[in-house]
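Notes continue from the previous slide.

Worked example: a multi-chain complex. Inputs as given:
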Amino acid sequence: MGRERLARYSLAGPENQAAVDAGLAGAIWFRSEVPRKRMKELMRRSDYPAIRDTAIWLGLMALFAGLGIAFWGSWWAVPFFLAYGVLYGSTSDSRWHETGHGTAFRSRWLDEALYQLASFMIMRDPTVWRWSHTRHHTDTLILGRDPEIAAMRPARLARLLANFFGLVDVPVAFRLMFLHATGRLTAEEADFVPEPERHKVYRTARIDLAIYAVTVASAVAFRSWLPVVLIGGPRIYGAFMLNVYALTQHAGMGENVLDHRLNTRTVKMCVVNRFLYWNMNYHVEHHMFPMVPYYRLPELHEEVKHDCAPVYPSLWAAYKEILPAILRQLKDQEYYVRRELLPGAAPFNEPTPLNDGRAQPLSTVTAA
Amino acid sequence: MAQWIAACSTGDIDPEDVIPFDHGGSAYAVYRSPDGAYYATDGHCSHEQTLLCDGLVMGDVIECPKHNGRFDYTSGKALGAPVLVDLRTYPTRVIDGTVYIDVG
């Protein structure tokens, strides 16, 4: 089962070409109708919201790190480093995401600067993951095409749980850093990173490894864990919220569909979570219109909500659906969460029986 | 060989905006810059087959609505990942309130 599952999701496996042959790769997806004038308003960016939010974010990290250092050696340091760790190891994901789309700031250099910083913190190569996420948006949850499917069918439960503490992501990140530093990519990365971009991957890996080497050397020299707790370590002890948020995006939903309402969730969150997650909870809207900056997604939600399924009212409500769905998919890999659209919504875009969300193996269906 | 085709009226495009134009089975994008000049490029992003007319014009730059591929629409130059291939541009001229593009 394990190898068969990995082969189905692998970009280097048979499902990739099968998806291309079936017309699922680079296909046309459903989008709600939004008047051009309104869409232009929503896509327009300014620097102010992201500068404000980034200043608060970096300021909070500096504050909590400072307090943690001040109380270093006592239990009082724990809550401060926990807060610092979540900001570093979890919320860098949403900063990485938004700046990767180039939509956080109006000024390109600000966007790129935060993208590089957040990529380092979340331990993702900025070039590989820019192309990976580009593919994720082109072929969202298309098997053999999307490199960012978090919950497979059946889910790799141990891996999912271990990743709440970065226990898979971090070792994999270092393995890739060492691979990239030697001037190589994995076969999957080579599927979506164009040749002219690859030198950046190799250079970044060497810089990142040098930073981590200095961090570890400092820890050894000072006989203290503090350097590791400040740099790199938060990707382990502060990573749990990253997974709490990220699994709400697509887990348990339809695969091989061409309509984000079938494979993506929008979840209502409180103002604190929306700050930490930079409004990525409006995920259906984000996938329909990726150029709308995070601070305008609530407005976009108002424009398209009539076309969607009812919003999940809370994280709790989302997980009441996600957990049973993942568990059921352990036994029934054709099961997926299919939601009812609101009355009057545009019907689901299901151009062929292949697009109903069950994700039968294309490599056998298309060959028959 | 030049082949001038009437694409739209000057008033059809807002300043700092883009509209689609189809001719002979090909898609074009026609732009009006903030200073009132008109430009034309291929209608699809060179990265994937996404229509640029749904994108955002900021100054001399068009941003693809799918992946934020950015081009200088005055020259067609691709401005960085995920677009690595320049857009083809087409000469334009305005006569009596009509924008013509040379698709030849």
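Summary box: Chain A touches chain B at residues 26, 36, 39-40, 43-44, 101-103, 106, 127, 130-131, 134, 137-138, 194, 196-197, 289-291 (CB under 8 Å). Residues 2-363 of chain A form one domain.
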